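Could you join me in thinking about how sequence relates to backbone shape in a protein? To get us started, please write out a protein record for me. Would you write everything just below, so we can both look at the same thing?
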Amino acid sequence: MMPPAPLSAAAPDAPTGFRHFHDQLETLKERLLTMSDRAEGLVDLAVDALLKQDQDRAEAVITGDRELDALEVEIEGLAVELLALQQPMARDLRFIVSAIKISSDLERVGDHAVNIAQCAQRLIAIRSTITPEPEIEDMARRARGMLGDALDAFIRADGTLGRDVCKSDDAVDALLNSLFRILLTHMMADARNITPSLELILVGRNLERVADLATNIGEDAVFLAEGKQIKHHFDDPARRSAGSPALTGGRGIGIPDDSR
């Protein structure tokens, strides 16, 4: 992971209160990185459990999800304390608000990893002989890469990389559609394939949701870097003008970027 972009750097002779604020921001950033690393690891472990039909790996995913739950609570508490006591502005404010949203997205990534692990357990229990399609491995690799890039983009305040992550989601959606068509063919060919095929479709759906959550984080990276909201294509003037007149002025829904 690339070195993070500084937010409000604390000078050596800065007032004690400001240095404390800067230290708290760094702690928040470090906990986000830790949570991201754990979430990515759970996705990898869940897919391994599926491909290798490994019950122990599946159990480890389910157990590991509790750490993500605890990290979400910790990050939210840190962020709320910063908002309440420090009254941050501009980029610092955007970072803290987005950190709360991202911790929620990462916790949901863990939930999807648990869903995949549980699919693996059910396939093991029925002694499925259907081999997971290559599309599943490809989806897992792409979703995992998007998740890592999205966090890099956010920590470095890299709007360009954040937009690239958002564009990558289409490839994962296409793989899910391809997986569905292949498994539908298997189910039509032999009714005994229906149950395991439905489990694999569910795995694909959960991987697609991980990619969607990575896209959310990529959008937050753009919001942090540029002060622009691109969620729901809100930076598209044509779409924005069709909405509420109260929302059509300025640079989308954003916090003024007086730190740039």
About this structure: The CA atoms of residues 61 and 178 lie 27 Å apart.
